[in-house]
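Run log, item B.
One chain of 512 residues. Sequence copied directly from the ordering sheet:
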Amino acid sequence: LEGYHNQSDFVPRAIARALPPLLKNVIPTASHPQSDVGDMRLADPRPFVRAVNQVALLLEQYPTPLRPPMPRPRMERFYPGLKGWDYDPRELAQAKSSGKLASYDTVITIPPPARSLPDETIERLSPVAGSDPKLEFIYSLLAAAGLLQPGSPVTIRPEVKEQFLRQSELAQRAILAQIYFRMLNWSALWEVLRESDLRLWRFPARQHLKPVDLRTDLVFFRQAVLRSLASLPDGEWVAIKDLFRLMRAVWPRFDHSVWQDYWRPSLKPSWFLGSKSGRSLDPDNADDWELAQGRFIRQVITGPLHWLGLADLCFDGDHLTAARFHGLADLYWDRVEIPDAPPAVATQAQSVLPEEAATADDCTITVAPSAISPQAHNLLNKIARLEVATAERFAYRLDSQTTYESFETGAALSELLDDWGQTLPIPMPEAIRDQLAAWWDAYGRVRIYENLTVIEFSDDYALAEMKAVTPLEKSIIAEISPRLVIIRQEAVAPLTESLKKAGYTPKQTDKV
C-alpha cells in the first residue's frame, strides 16, 4: 500500500475500544475443529503464570550471571556502522579482507541475539519454564516488568516482586500480557530466525540505523499483528489461511521501508529479511510472504498469545491451521483490567489432590510447583530455603535466617500462620508451628550491632537537656541508662558539631 508507513494506525485506539470487532464478517468464521481431524490445544494461562513465578523464585534463590555480551570488534573504531551491533565474526572478517566493508552496497547479517542466561542456567531452568524459547521469553518479561535490577548477576527487586505476587493469577496474566504488547527486549523474529534459513540483513554504511531502531521497528510489526488479531470476534475460530489473506494486505513488506519516510521502490531499505545469499524477499510472492510474515504471525500466536492463555490452537501435524482468541481484544484495547479465564479453564475441575500438591514433616515442605499458587511459593520463600527444584518437585527446608529476615521486613507470626491456611492445601504441622513460634518469641531479645559509639553523660539530667537542644534523639539506637546511650558511628561527627554549637564540650576517646 502506497504510504503504508503513515497509515498503520488506521483507527484511533479510543475509537477502536468502543467499536464492535472491526473484522467481524471480513474474515469468515471457521467451523469448530473436530478432535479427530486436528490436534487442538486449548488456552490456559495458569501454567505459564506459575512458571514465571517459579523462574523468578529460582533466580532469586540462586543468583546467576548474565551471558557476557559479544566482544566488540577492534575494527569498530574505523567503521562506525558496526557500533553496538551483534555480528558474524567470520562474515565480518571476510568483508574487511575484501575491502568492501565500507561500500554503500555491502550487506551483513544481524544474527539473532544469544540467549540472555548462560548455558548452565538454561539447562537448570528450562524444564521449569517448559522450553528454551519460553525461558528466554519469561526472562525478558521479568526484565521488562522491572522485577529484575539492571546488570549482572540477575537480581530480583523484592518490593516489585511482593507487589506482583499480591495479585491473582489472572491479574498477573493481564500484567504480563500488557508488558508483552510493548516490550522492546524480545521479538518473535529471533525465534523465526533460529528455526529457519532466513537471514536478517543490513547495510553497515548506513550509520543512522541503530539497534534500538530495529527493535522499535519490530515492536511496530508486532503491534500491526496484534491490532489485527484484536479486531477479530472473541471466541470464534478463524482459519489461518483466511487470516493470512487479510494480513498480506495489512502487512505487505517485512523490511525497514515500511517505516522510512520518502521511500520508493528504487531505494534499498536499511534492513530487510532475505535468504542466506542476501536475496531480499519479494513482497508480491506468496511463498516469500509465508516464509517471513507468515512465520512471524504463527510465532506470535503459538508462542506468547497461547502461553498467556489468549489463543486456542488447532494443528494439522506441526502446521497451525486455525486459532480462536479469548480476552485478547479486551486486553489490547484496555476495555477491562482483568479479563476472565478462557472457558475451558473455567469449566475444568481441579485434578490435583491436596496430598499430591503439598506434603510437610517436621522441617521440610515438598510441593508440586505448578499445583500451588504464587502466593504459596512466596510464603514458603519467607520461612524456608529452597533446597531441591525440578519441574515436578520443589523441596523447602525451614530456615531460621530466612524467617529472621522476614521478621525484619515486617512479617509477623500471626500473618505467616494465616497465609499458610489461606494458600496451602494442607494444615501446618505442629513442629513447624512450634518452631516458628519459638523464633518469633526469641526475635528481638538479642541484637548485635556493629560500628557503634557510646555516649556517657556526667549526670542524670544532661541527656534530657541535650535531646531538647540538639538532634541527638534522632541518632540514638538504644538508651542503656540515663547516663549511657548508643549511637551509630557515622553520627558522631555531625552530632559533635551540633553539641559544640550548643555550648557543650564533648570529649572523644577510643578507650572504654
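Observations after the first pass:
- The radius of gyration is 30 Å.
- The longest helix spans residues 286-307.
Flagged for discussion on Thursday.
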